[in-house]
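Page header: ASSEMBLY MODEL / two components / 661 residues total.
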Amino acid sequence: MQNRTEKIILTIVIVIAIATFCYWLYYNPVKDLTVNLPGLDNRPSKGESADTMAVIGEKFKEYTTYTSSLTGKWPRFRGADIDNINKEKIKLIDNWGSSRPKILWKTDLGEGHAAPVIYNGKVYLLDYDERKKSDALRCFALENGIELWRRWYSVNLKRNHGMSRTLPAITDKYIVTIGPKCHVMCCNPTNGNLLWGIDLVKTYKVEVPLWYTGQCPLIVNDTAIIAVGGNALMIGVECASGKVVWKTPNPDNWKMSHSSIIPITFGGKKMYVYCAIGGIIGVSAEGIDKGEILWKTDKFKPSVCAPSPVIIGTGKLFITAGYGAGSAVIQLIKTDSTYSVNIIQQYRPSEGIASEQQTPILYNNFLFSIQPKDGGTARNQFVCCNPSNCKTILWTSSKADRYGLGPYIVADGKFFILNDDGTLIIAKASATKFTLLDKAKIMDGQDAWGPLAIADGYLLMRDSKQMVCIDIKTK
Amino acid sequence: MAEKKQYNRRDFINNSLRAGIAVSLAGITVALTTRALSGKSVWQLNPAKCVQCGRCATSCILETSAVKCVHVYDMCGYCDLCGGYLRPDTKELNTAAENQLCPTSAISRKYIEEPFFEYQIIEELCIGCGKCVKGCGAFGNGSLQLQINHKLCVNCNQCAIARVCPSEAFSLVSASDAYLYQGKKM
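Prediction written out in full:
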């Protein structure tokens, strides 16, 4: 009897064990989970875009002729010396006085952040004509804003936090532009005659950056220097002929960023520095190795990079980017004839001076910037630091004086700072403390992010849809 | 001929006090009446004060917080690089789990047309941690915002989250106007 009971119990135990084992074997504890893989957003694969081919510079219209006695120049992004400092000996106002700033002229623009350059009394801007759906290089008279001519070509764009966002580069003989979809165009700045054009997407398989192109071209010794991505990392194009005279390989497949190329000289060697999506690179600008990579680093590689590198010492560069990337200070090292890079500082935006969109300014050996939104307690404040230690902020503007993504420039010992809403601030350019001199609302628009330009005492500024000119000379 | 009564300083003060009391009583009456007519009050958080500390996810008495992310579409930029959807250091702008900022994958992303993407909140998965709200506010237009979902909220006498909210973003609001989105109401 006892034996039989034992057998029954044993059988039951075995059955339960087998059932438990089967349940364990067949039960799927993750059956309700879904796997997040790339492609769930139904993004079409590359190359499915139905963009029509642009015929760069195909159309031209001259409105009137104009000559000016003005000789002031703001010939490219951040000015002639690429430091965003106007060095003209013209006394500029400290405040607006009792009256509201007088707008000399204004003109409607396509939505965007493209900004003008100024050359001998003429203003040049690569606008986007929303009605004609075209990139349009427009030339205006600085003193009265009359449009003199425009050259344009059809490009279909969709609004994406603005459309246009670059500045041309201009010399006596050439003006070079880069459009939102990476169309490079070179014209004669006097009469607007087309010299040549290059479609970087078609020629080099470039990926158009997020929110369109932000890179501003550079002209050195009548050669246009363009950062590319795709099949080449950088190219030098002879302005007279449009011939590509050198090409830098892109072995790591780095992509075009919104940052612009900065020329520097280190160890007796001229080079071009560029912060690509993927890393920072130095390219030889002279000699038999022109166009070859001298050094590179991927230790600091933000996913989006709008500010350009800032030279803060001999072979020492400050590089910053938004979207949480923060900043890095790099030191170039020359050993015999080879170059290498040492990262001196690298930190998050809340830990030191940083910028999301505008390039900081080195003035009188101090570095000035507007902290990004993720810049900790100093967020959106105008700040100053000694570049020997970019993590130590010397002063901030104050909680009451916060700014957005707008531009700032130094002229006549003063900062002119443009807030997102079109308010122009004048502050003393001093490393001691932030001294607000005056401010005035100039425009009623929004997203006033395009860089400022000053020449001959005229200040050009824009919001997302309009450009205005004001006379800031002391009367 | 009746003598004209002198209106002295004492009369003026007395009348002013009476008028003041009358106006105050009328104001209180109007306020109480308005409140009574508008129905009960409910808890809500003000997105302008919210600092996305994460306590909404952990302090609600419900098993899964009644605080959810809402998307105010008219404020959204529909960007490919969305600070509310993607981790700040991500290199690939796609839907892979390692690129997503939301710990529960409560945001779905859908391609509309080049270069725009639509982002939708999957409410059942949202735990109200506010990570996406922080990312959107830091790099985008601030179209992702936290709100108490009144279909889920049991409207405690004293909201447990309000008690620990460091920015005092919670307050009682009229049930007839129970949401405090910034931007257009959906």
